[in-house]
Each structure stands twice: as structure tokens, then as C-alpha cells.
Write a structure and sequence with these properties.
By secondary structure, this protein is mainly alpha-helical. The chain is built from eight helices and no strands. The protein has one domain.
């Protein structure tokens, strides 16, 4: 039982290790970050777009994260991401907390509901890299 579960999650464990060791290349490092913010069920996840953008800005990686995600997100998720980013930029440096909750709720919900689709993109890439012995 445990062995089967470990094998099913081997790709994720590889991705996490590569990410932590800064060996996960762009744009997939950005996708890994984004997925962690769009996982409503994860203890640290489910924070949504505002937190994702704010932390990327704090780390001085906002522009690169946006560029990276725009290169890997499929159409619907990309449109949602772009709309959320436009709203983030329009809020300025010190938005009202209640406004943040209201503004990002629909964008977050859209991404939360498509979390499995996001993870599939990451999983497909990691699985391919594992098969090629790059990771």
C-alpha cells in the first residue's frame, strides 16, 4: 500500500526536491509556486492570486513569474491569470483588505477549481524529465 502511494507521488517528490535545490527550470519553477498557491486543500496553499503576486513582487520576481506562467498556462487559465494580474496591478501598493478579498475571489475560485489541470501540466513535464534522466 505505502509503496504504491510513494510510486504515484514520485514525480511530485522529484519536483519538490528540484524546486528546493533551485534545479527546477523556468517556467516550471513558477508553475510549481503557482500550484502551491492554488491548492485549496494544502495546509499552506489556497492563498490565491493576491498572495502569489505579492510574494513574487517582494522577492523581486514578479515580472519573471508572470512571463513564465504566460508561457505554460492553457487558454482558460491564462485568461484568468492575466485578468487577476491586471487587477493586482490596478490596486496599487496598499490596497484595502476587504477590496482584495472581493476582487480576487472569482479569479481564485476559477484556479482552485482547475488545480488538477495545473498539476497535470507540471506532472507531465516532470515525468518526461524523469524518463530522460534529467531529474
Amino acid at each position: 500500500m505505502f509503496g504504491k502511494k510513494f510510486k504515484e507521488n514520485a514525480w511530485y517528490n522529484k519536483a519538490r526536491k528540484a524546486y528546493r535545490n533551485e534545479k527546477l527550470p523556468a517556467p516550471y519553477a513558477a508553475l510549481y509556486d503557482y500550484c502551491s498557491y492554488m491548492d485549496r486543500k494544502h495546509l499552506r496553499g489556497g492563498k490565491g492570486h493576491f498572495d502569489f503576486f505579492s510574494l513574487a513582487k517582494f522577492d523581486d520576481r514578479l515580472d519573471s513569474r508572470v512571463k513564465d506562467l504566460r508561457s505554460v498556462l492553457p487558454e482558460g487559465l491564462l485568461e484568468n491569470f492575466n485578468a487577476a494580474y491586471d487587477k493586482y496591478i490596478s490596486l496599487g501598493d496598499e490596497p484595502d483588505f476587504e477590496l482584495v478579498i472581493t476582487v480576487f475571489d472569482e479569479y481564485d475560485e476559477y484556479a482552485f477549481e482547475r488545480y488538477e489541470q495545473l498539476m497535470k501540466i507540471l506532472k507531465d513535464y516532470i515525468t518526461e524529465m524523469m524518463e530522460k534522466h534529467y531529474l
